[in-house]
């Protein structure tokens, strides 16, 4: 199981490297974006392999040149804040009314799972970081319980649409 997970991670990284090379990305930025927004987090967040400290961030969502792969660029507004690209694991139609990041809380850390963008009619899904799980041991239920069952463990962070 660990070998399969490692191979899937390696395949995703290789795809991202080739996609960035194909687009001619020089400074790790999306040349075109379908969605641009701003969000603020009050706790540390894990988004893929990127750790975001509490603060305000800009995000840009768009397809790579091949059109089948989408990425999110996250840029911290504060000096020294992280800046990176996150590969979307999938897309689906969105049913939410507001633009938001859907996060799962693991201890004091938020894990970003979905970027809902009703402004463009889609939602981008993201993989769980290594070592994180959507199930936890729960003695009350004699086994494992999905984290999403606990209403306080899900959090929506509003994303304000940037004016273009």
**Structural class determined from secondary elements:** mainly beta
Total count of helical runs of at least 4 residues? 1
Question: Sheet with the most strands?
Answer: 7 strands, mixed
The helix/strand series, from N terminus to C terminus, equals HEEEEEEEEEEEEEE
Helix content, binned percent: 10-25%
Using only C-alpha atoms, the radius of gyration works out to: 16 Å
Indicate the mean pLDDT.
Answer: 76
Q: Oligomeric form of this entry?
A: single chain
Uncertain regions spanning at least 5 consecutive residues:
18-28, 148-152
Distance between the termini: 45 Å
Tell me the domain tally: 1
Structural shape: globular
Tell me the number of strands. 14
Give the percentage of residues in beta strands. 35-45%
Describe this structure in words.
With 164 residues, this protein is mainly beta. The protein has one domain (2-161). It is built from 1 helix and 14 strands. The strands form 3 sheets. Strands 2, 3, 7, 8, 9, 10 and 13 form a 7-stranded mixed β-sheet that branches. Strand 2 (45-47) and strand 3 (50-52) form a beta hairpin. The longest helix is centred in the N-terminal third of the chain and has 22 residues, at 2-23. The protein is globular.
Q: Quick summary of this structure?
A:
The chain has one helix at residues 2-23, and strands at 35-41, 45-47, 50-52, 55-63, 70-76, 83-87, 90-92, 100-106, 109-117, 122-125, 135-138, 143-146, 154-158, 160-161.
């Amino acid at each position: 199981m660990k070998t399969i997970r490692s191979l899937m991670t390696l395949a995703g990284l290789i795809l991202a490297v080739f996609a960035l090379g194909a687009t001619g990305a020089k400074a790790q930025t999306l040349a075109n974006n379908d969605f641009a927004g701003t969000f603020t987090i009050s706790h540390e967040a894990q988004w893929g392999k990127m750790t975001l400290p509490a603060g305000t961030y800009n995000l840009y969502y768009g397809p790579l040149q091949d059109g089948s792969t989408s990425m999110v660029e996250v840029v911290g507004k504060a000096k020294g804040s992280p800046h990176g690209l996150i590969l979307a694991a999938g897309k689906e139609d969105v049913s939410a009314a507001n633009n938001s990041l859907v996060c799962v809380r693991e201890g004091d850390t938020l894990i970003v799972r979905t970027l809902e963008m009703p402004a463009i009619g889609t939602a981008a899904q993201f993989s769980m970081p290594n070592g994180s799980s959507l199930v936890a041991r729960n003695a009350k239920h004699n086994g494992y319980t999905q984290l999403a069952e606990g209403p306080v463990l899900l959090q929506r962070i509003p994303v304000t649409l940037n004016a273009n």
